Amino acid sequence: MEENSTMENQQVENEEVVNNATEGANAETAAEQTPEEQIKALEEKCAKLHDDYIRLYADFENFRKQSLKARAELIKSAGEGIFANMLPLVDDMERAMNAMANATEVSSVKEGVDLIYNKFNTFLAQNGVTPIETEGADFNVDFHEAITMIPAPTEELKGKVIDCTQKGYMLKDKVLRFSKVVVGQ
Question: What angle do CA 71, 75, 79 make, to 5 degrees?
Answer without folding.
Answer: 150
